[in-house]
Amino acid sequence: VPWLYYLLLVWLIFILLAPAKILSHTNLNEPNSKNTKTHKFMWTWPW
């Protein structure tokens, strides 16, 4: 079933990239803005 594989792929990407999004939200107040930009780019990349 193709939609099942698509759902599994989206779920896998979400599991892998969710910590990066959480990390970017927690690092918004940090002076290192370069790290936050890379995490935001990594989060928006698969979509």
List the topology elements.
Blueprint: H1 2-26, H2 33-44
Helix pairs in contact: 1-2
Key terms for this structure?
0% strand; single chain; 79% helix; 47 residues; 2 helices; mainly alpha
H/E series, N to C?
HH
> Strand-residue fraction?
under 5%
What gap, in angstroms, lies between the N and C termini? 22 Å
The averaged pLDDT comes out at 66
Tally of distinct domains: 1
Q: What is the number of helical segments per DSSP (H or I, 4+ residues)?
A: 2
- Give the structural class: mainly alpha
Largest sheet at a glance? Answer: none
Silhouette: rod-shaped
Low-confidence stretches: none
Report Rg.
13 Å
Helix content: over 70%
Q: Count every beta strand, where a strand is a DSSP E run of 2 or more residues.
A: 0
Family: Belongs to the ATPase protein 8 family.
Protein name: ATP synthase complex subunit 8
Signal peptide: 1-24
Subcellular location: Mitochondrion membrane
Write structural notes for this entry.
It is a single-pass membrane protein. This protein is mainly alpha-helical. It has one domain (2-44). 79% of the residues lie in helices and 0% in strands. The protein has two helices and no strands. Helix 1 (2-26) runs antiparallel to helix 2 (33-44). It is rod-shaped, with a radius of gyration of 13 Å. 2% of the residues are buried. The mean pLDDT is 66.
